[in-house]
Each structure stands twice: as structure tokens, then as C-alpha cells.
Amino acid sequence: MRSLRFLDLSFNMLEGSLPIPSSIVGFFSVSNNKLIGSISFLFCNASSLVILNLSHNKLTGPIPQCLVAFPYLLVLDLQMNNLVGTIPRNFSKTNSLQTLHFNGNQLQGSLPLSLANCTQLEILDVGENLIVDRFPDWLEDLQELFDGDHIEG
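== Receptor-like protein 9DC3 ==
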């Protein structure tokens, strides 16, 4: 029996609650729709995710802590929603994250120290939130963020 591993429903006019991907889906994108509600804790069962894109919807509530603990996740895009609370503080040392888009929400607090565990991170976008912090010195240790090969201009 074959199972769905790639689901892209982006750029439609989908309304209603956010669907929950199965535990074997690797690519899940429902960006640029009109989905509402919070990100359910049932997303924690989708630990095979490599790319998760829920951007440009009308999602509310906090970011579930489990999303930043998935071992294979490369891209987490939650930008341009109405998410609240703080950035999760449990980025593991074994994470594979390369891209984090949290911009355009209502996230508060400071950048969590556990972000230093994201040694493969190339893109970190937390703009247009309510984050109050000093520039964290440890952020400079993330070499992929400050590698000149990734700077355009």
C-alpha cells in the first residue's frame, strides 16, 4: 500500500481548520490559504517532516514545542500568521534546521539560547514580532548564518 509523503495545497482559497499531516508525510505545505485556528499538538506525531510550511494563513495560538524537536526538519515556515507566545526553547543539539521563518507574527520574549544548537541554520527570520532582547553574542557562532556565500547584494 502506498502512502502520501508529499502534500502541497499552497496558494488556494482553503478555509477552515488546519489539517493534520500523517506521521509519514515528509513535505507538508498549506501556505497562502485562509486557514484558521491553532497548530494542534497532534502535529507532534508528524515527526518525519522535512519541510513544514504553514505560512500566510490566519493561524493563532502558540508554536508547539515539538515542532523544533523534529530530527529531520530542514524548513519550518510559520511566517505571516497571528501566532503568539514565545519562540520554542527546546531546539535540540541533533536538529537539522536550515531555515526558520517566524516573521510577521506576535511572538514575544527573547531569542532562546537553544537556537545556538541550530548549527546548520542558514536563514533565521524573526522580524515583525514583539521580541525584546539584546543582540545575542552566541548567534555569531552560527557560521552558516554569517557565511559570506549566503549574502546577496
